[in-house]
Design brief:
The protein has about 120 residues and is mostly helical. The chain is about 35% helix and about 0% strand.
Length: about 120
């Protein structure tokens, strides 16, 4: 997600006023709700919020790769709740189990596992 704002910029609301690489804009273009047209250079900030100058990514390439893989994995897991459940499992139980698994994966405060787990 970008930190860009759409007021006080020369681009129309359906054009690219987003920060470079913004996933929201890419999604809007993919479904036909926006265009990739930009009337100014991506380096030119537009106001005090500097929408075209997001915080630099300080992650190492290995962490970028890891985050990209995990992002795809979590998206795939989230889509499972709308899939047809396996035979013998109700839709309600299937959705509850998928959401429960996502909750467990996103739990940032797991219980301590012992003195050697740190």
């Amino acid at each position: 997600m970008c930190n860009a704002i759409w007021w006080d910029v020369p681009e129309d609301i359906d054009q690219d006023w987003h920060a470079p690489g913004c996933g929201i804009h890419q999604a809007l273009v993919a479904v036909g709700l926006a265009t990739n047209e930009r009337k100014r250079s991506p380096e030119e900030p537009s106001g005090p919020y500097t929408p075209n100058a997001p915080n630099p990514d300080t992650r190492a390439p290995a962490r970028v790769h890891r985050d990209t893989v995990l992002e795809g994995f979590f998206a795939q897991m989230a889509r499972l709740q709308w899939e047809t459940p396996p035979e013998g499992v109700s839709q309600e139980a299937w959705v509850k189990s998928v959401r429960g698994m996502l909750d467990k994966l996103l739990d940032f405060n797991p219980p301590a596992r012992g003195p050697y787990s740190k």
